[in-house]
Amino acid sequence: MGGRGSGGHNKLSDAEKKRRGTFRADNSEAVYAERQAAKIVVGPWLSEIPEPEYTLNAVGRKKYDELTGELLKQSKLTKISVTRASLVALLHQKFDHLAASGKYPSAHDVAKFQSALRELDIAQHAQVTAPGGAKNKFADCGFSNSRASPFRLRTPGKTRA
């Protein structure tokens, strides 16, 4: 089973098939190349980080570079995501300015920031992990009422008199 010329790894060239008289146009190398080309995903993704759409200071630019760098790494950088990343960076810059003057951002700005950050879809499938070796904060809360525990809050089968 298998062997040379069986169509697996050792495929014959079109010239060899024509020489043998077994050439079929629907199984030619050109058809295989077209099938492979159809599997390539073409989209509006950018291959490098463009300039932000808004004028940003150092704080906003740092956030913009952080977000767009992560989007580029995940192959999600498009013109639309650049616009959203610019908006998030602008709002982050505004929050930093307000915090420096001792003020809080409005709830509307916070909602816009969270919405735009969510739409960037950067860490959508990230797993939540606890820090290694962290103590369970409920370990010392009291006695366990599980069947495996040596202590019981009530003994089964006895009722109060």
Structure characteristics:
single chain, 161 residues, mainly alpha, flat
Q: Into which percent range does the helicity of residues fall?
A: 40-55%
Question: Number of helix segments?
Answer: 5
Note poorly predicted spans. none
- Compute the average pLDDT: 79
Q: Alpha-carbon distance between the termini? A: 83 Å
Report the sheet-strand fraction: under 5%
Order of helices and strands: HHHHH
Class by SSE composition? mainly alpha
Which word captures the global form? Answer: flat
**Biggest sheet character:** none
Radius of gyration: 31 Å
Count of distinct strands: 0
Would you kindly provide a written description of the structure presented here, covering whatever features stand out?
With 161 residues, the protein is mainly α. Among the domains are: 7-40, no CATH class; 58-120. Helix content is 43%, strand content 0%. The chain contains 5 helices and no strands. Helix 3 (58-73) runs antiparallel to helix 4. The radius of gyration is 31 Å and the shape is flat. The model has no long low-confidence stretch (mean pLDDT 79). Residues 1-28, 142-161 are annotated as: Disordered.
In short:
By secondary structure, this protein is mainly α.
Summarize the helices and strands and which ones pair or pack.
Layout: H1 14-20, H2 29-38, H3 58-73, H4 79-100, H5 107-120
Region (Disordered): 1-28, 142-161
